[in-house]
């Protein structure tokens, strides 16, 4: 059994964390041989709820979980952590766009960036889940200059999982038979779910999804729209935003980042743009991380129009975030 690593989950008294903490503590992210010290960070009014979460984690009797540190102090929460799940932020309600959360949430990521900078391990992997996730990740990284920018990523894995589920259900195939779908751009309704490099296993043979579907109007129309609007559809049905699926996606994201992916397989995560594919350089979290070597530097015309749209939205969000922070 490896020496314990410290892992922090922020928003630890909230909905997503309620599923996420259990999955992490069971070993689904860092492995069944990796013991853990879990840091649970929330805000002072939630201290009582945190106590209940600590009790439940103890009562789960999980062998990998060595210690739990509940706290409302970011400097204690981020101390010596190797991995950080930044979930704590306000969720949107029905009728809102995720960017409507910007003024309420962006300040949280400034404070947490500063705390990470001071006390986290310098090779900490930081996953931002709280919305608007891409812009919050950018802000967090900006306030943690001593940690490399590549160590910050924003979650678009839920969108990838949603896209895979759509394709699997179209073919009546198991989800494990679908791979290499890409989510480009912002985790928002401008995101571009792209099936053009995707593969599906049919009759023991991996086929290109575009060929297997044989209907571009579906892949460029209802498929894209369903994934773009899935978060809103869940809110409309549940009256609360997605939580179980978000927690699973956060585990998938960190798992693949921590351990790497199988050869030839790629996954989506928001990372800093280096200007590839015509994305705005050095500014935004825009394209999925692992694709570059596989895809080269060109994208199809349809894709490039979509990328342009989501890239512009990220630039606008970035500007708005800076003006919120400047006015404080
Ligand atoms: N990227 C994605 O795919 C994705 C998916 C689902 C939800 N989300 C986002 O995740 C966030 C959390 O969602 P939820 O359903 O768990 O919300 P929730 O309201 O149930 O929980 C949020 C928790 O964060 C805490 N919190 C607020 N400010 C904090 C701070 N400064 N430090 C630490 N904790 C703080 C709150 O007290 C609360 O306990 C929302 O912004 C939501 O929109 C993102
Ligand atoms: O849609 C939301 O506001 C929550 C989350 O980002 C989601 O995609 O489900």
UniProtKB/TrEMBL annotation:
GO molecular function: L-malate dehydrogenase (NAD+) activity
Annotated catalytic residues: 187
Highest taxon in the source lineage: Eukaryota
Residues annotated for NAD(+) binding in this entry: 42, 105, 129-131
EC number: 1.1.1.37
Regions crossing the membrane: none
Record's keyword terms, sorted: NAD, Oxidoreductase, Tricarboxylic acid cycle
KW NAD (keyword) present: yes
Cited PROSITE patterns: MDH
Start and end residues of each Lactate/malate dehydrogenase C-terminal domain: 156-309
Catalyses which reaction(s): (S)-malate + NAD(+) = oxaloacetate + NADH + H(+)
Keyword set includes Signal: no
Cross-referenced Pfam families: Ldh_1_C, Ldh_1_N
Gene Ontology annotations of biological process type: malate metabolic process; tricarboxylic acid cycle
Binding site for substrate: 92, 98, 131, 162
Residue span(s) of domain Lactate/malate dehydrogenase N-terminal: 6-152
PANTHER family found in the cross-reference section: MALATE DEHYDROGENASE
Similarity field: Belongs to the LDH/MDH superfamily. MDH type 2 family.
NCBIfam families listed in its UniProt record: MalateDH-SF1 (TIGR01759), MDH_euk_cyt (TIGR01758), PRK05442.1 (NF003916)
Protein name stated in the entry: Malate dehydrogenase
């Amino acid at each position: 059994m490896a020496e314990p690593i410290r892992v922090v989950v922020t928003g630890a008294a909230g909905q997503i964390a309620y599923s996420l903490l259990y999955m992490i503590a069971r070993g689904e992210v860092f492995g069944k041989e990796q013991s853990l010290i879990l840091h649970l960070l929330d805000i002072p009014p939630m201290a009582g709820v945190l106590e209940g979460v600590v009790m439940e984690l103890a009562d789960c009797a999980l062998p990998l979980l060595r210690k739990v540190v509940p706290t409302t102090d970011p400097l204690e929460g981020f101390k010596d952590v190797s991995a950080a799940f930044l979930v704590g932020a306000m969720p949107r309600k029905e009728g809102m766009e995720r960017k409507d959360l910007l003024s309420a949430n962006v300040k949280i990521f400034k404070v947490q960036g500063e705390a990470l900078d001071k006390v986290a391990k310098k090779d900490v992997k930081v996953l931002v889940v709280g919305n608007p996730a891409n812009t919050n990740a950018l802000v967090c990284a900006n306030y943690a200059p001593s940690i490399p920018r590549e160590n910050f990523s924003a979650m678009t894995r839920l969108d990838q999982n949603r896209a895979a589920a759509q394709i699997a259900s179209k073919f009546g195939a198991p989800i494990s038979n679908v791979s290499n779908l890409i989510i480009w751009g912002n985790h928002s309704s401008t995101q571009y779910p792209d099936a053009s490099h995707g593969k599906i296993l049919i009759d023991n043979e991996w086929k290109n999804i575009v060929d297997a579907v044989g209907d571009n109007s579906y892949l460029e129309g209802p498929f894209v729209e369903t994934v773009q609007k899935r978060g809103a559809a869940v809110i409309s049905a549940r009256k609360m935003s997605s939580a179980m699926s978000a927690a699973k996606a956060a585990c998938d994201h960190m798992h693949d980042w921590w351990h790497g992916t199988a050869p030839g397989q790629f996954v989506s995560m928001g990372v800093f743009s280096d200007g590839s594919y015509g994305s705005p350089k050095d500014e935004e979290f825009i394209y999925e991380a692992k694709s570059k070597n596989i895809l080269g530097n060109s994208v199809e015309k349809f894709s490039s129009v979509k990328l342009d749209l989501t890239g512009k939205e990220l630039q606008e969000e970035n500007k708005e975030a800076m003006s919120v922070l400047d006015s404080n």
